[in-house]
Amino acid sequence: MRLRTTFGRTATRFTAIGAAALAIVGVTATSAAAGDSVSVEGAYGAATFYDKGDLFAAYDLHADGRSVQAKLKVPYRGKTYSVRASGAGDEARMNLNLAEGATVYLKMCYVDNGTADCGSWHKGVA
């Protein structure tokens, strides 16, 4: 009987330690995979970065002669990507394969006759 009781306590301890270890691993994996989408909306269009799939897009909402440009700055690559939608209902998008947890910056510009009028950068996480 004494051996069985000691074994039972030891098994209980291992079970508790294993459960705690799994909980820690689960939290770490979830935190590392979490991203942060960002969107900029204006009167004539919108720009969006979706952390799921690393997609960014520009949306032109009005037939007003202006186009809507989305710019995505990816500091760890040292690059800025751009897509432009022209015409009411038009959408332009680009998929990027970014490192999980990478910081990105999105901004939207209205382009009229080749002149861009841009807003500020907005932070997101891939």
From TrEMBL:
Keywords: Signal. Residues 1-34 form the signal peptide. This is Secreted protein. It comes from Streptomyces albiaxialis.
